[in-house]
Amino acid sequence: MVHGKCISSRNTYFMKRVFPFIAFGGLALVLAVPLMAARPHGNFPYAVLIGPLVMAVIFYFVLKRLVFDLVDEVVDEGDALVIRVGSERERIPLTQIINVSYAGMTNPRRVTLTLRHPGRFGREVVFSPRQGFFQGLAGASPLVRELIERVDAARRQ
Questions:
Q1: Residue 29 parent element (H or E)
Q2: How far apart are CA 96 and CA 150, in angstroms?
Q3: pLDDT (tens digit, 9 = 90+) per residue, 44-74?
Q4: Which 8-state DSSP code applies to residue 48?
Q5: In the CATH scheme, what is the code of domain 73-156?
Q6: What is the CA 31 to chain-centroid distance, rounded?
Q7: Do 74 and 81 contact (CB within 8 A), yes or no?
Q8: Which residue in 65, 91, 112, 117 is a FRET match for 56, CA 20 to 30 A apart?
Q9: Phi and psi, residue 130, nearest 5°
């Protein structure tokens, strides 16, 4: 059992598992309706397929770039972060983090931890930080600022 404060967004599961299913399911419906309507008549305007197929490709690459690489959970244990992807966990001491970067102008917002040595999940660990409803309007997340300060302090010791 991991003890500590979860600093990753509660929406990560939705963004990684549910949203793609809804998005691609919606596109499948958009493709299926014209196919079903044209079936009795035998003639089908294939140009109708182009838009949804292009959208599917765009959705896939956007989700691959912004969502699929997010870890499932990050728990702050004080002197280390516990990273979880599926049932696998890795404990990363703050001294092993060489950089913390924050991308607040993306949806979902992203925090990238660059590690001194590659771990179980690679050299970079990316997660979406937990935040309040209006917190994103104020600029950088206080959680991220605090994490940056703690990583810097751990490195100096």
A1: helix 19-38
A2: 12
A3: 667 777 888 899 999 999 999 999 999 999 9
A4: H
A5: 2.30.29.30
A6: 27
A7: yes
A8: 112
A9: -75, 140
Question: Residue 131: which residues within 8 A CB-CB, separation 6 or more?
Answer: 9, 109, 141, 143
Residue 44 tokens read as 């089908």
Mean pLDDT of 113-140: 82
Tokens 């493709």 correspond to: 31
Q: Residue count of the chain, please give it.
A: 157
Longest dimension (CA), the chain: 75
Q: What angle do CA 94, 121, 151 make, to 5 degrees?
A: 15
Q: Decide: helix, strand or coil at residue 70.
A: strand
Those residues with Cβ within 8 angstroms of residue 104's Cβ, 6 or more apart along the chain or in another chain: 136, 139, 140, 141
> Do the beta carbons of residue 153 and residue 100 sit within 8 Å?
no
Query: Which residue type is seen at 128?
Result: S
Q: Give the integer Cα–Cα distance in Å for 22 and 90.
A: 31
3-state SS class at 142: helix
Structural domain boundaries in the chain:
10-66, 73-156
